[in-house]
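Sequence only, no structure available. Ideas?
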Amino acid sequence: MKAMFTLAPRRCEPMLYVVATLFVHAKRLAERAASRARSSEQHACMYSHSCEGVYIVLSWRRVLQQDEDGRAGEE
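Reply:
I predicted one. Tokens follow.
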């Protein structure tokens, strides 16, 4: 009986190593995926802010153009 307990861990060691290795690789893949998701969110956020900035500039130019057109019509 004592021999079974001493042999069992040695038989399980390769399987435990494989499971531990798979767990480590899965954890690394999850961390990389989370990192990519964060970076893509940051890029999307920067892109939306730049689009908003372009929209504001175009809107302001439209207001200035309308103002100049209104002044030209008054003169």
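DSSP finds one helix and no strands in the chain.
Hope that gets you unstuck.
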